[in-house]
Amino acid sequence: MRVNVEIITGTFINTEVSETATVKELKEKIAKEVQLSVRRLILVVGHEEERRMVREDEDETMLINLGVREDSHMYLFFKHPDLVYKEERSQEKGDGACMEEVSSEAESNRGNGQEDEEAKAEIYGGEENIEMKNGEEDRDVNVDYREKEKKNEEENKG
């Protein structure tokens, strides 16, 4: 059966899968197409009224059991590589860190130079786009820094 996957960037992937294909099998096909890890892929299935994100524990579920039919339209989103790394690390340690903690920690690391260039190239579509994005991140960090400085000054006055 043919399924249409719309990536958050507006790009479409039209792919063929068997009637008994699982979520994992579809993710593996898509991962090859977009050249990303299967762990970074987030699928959203269903019609407008009943759209939902496919959970990771549903990877062995057949697509047909999720309501996916011939020419079904679904959406694809990506997890940030820092988030995937933190999730994997917390699973290895077995510390039970919740997704919220991992997400906030990954967000706090954004833009402070801890991301490696290869991950940035993967996110921003190649090395040629990294310089432009780095400039945007630098502006964001400068704005955040100025806001923190202003807040600190106000706290010190009071």
Automatic annotation (TrEMBL):
Residues 88-158 are annotated as: Disordered. CDD domains: Ubl_ubiquitin_like (cd17039). Gene3D superfamilies: Phosphatidylinositol 3-kinase Catalytic Subunit, Chain A, domain 1. It comes from the Eukaryota. PROSITE patterns: UBIQUITIN_2. Residues 1-83 form the Ubiquitin-like domain. GO terms for molecular function: polyubiquitin modification-dependent protein binding; proteasome binding; ubiquitin binding. GO terms for cellular component: cytosol; nucleoplasm. GO terms for biological process: proteasome-mediated ubiquitin-dependent protein catabolic process. Residues 130-158 have a biased composition (Basic and acidic residues). PANTHER family: UBIQUITIN FAMILY PROTEIN, UV EXCISION REPAIR PROTEIN RAD23. This is Ubiquitin-like domain-containing protein. It comes from Brassica carinata. The lineage of its organism: Eukaryota, Viridiplantae, Streptophyta, Embryophyta, Tracheophyta.
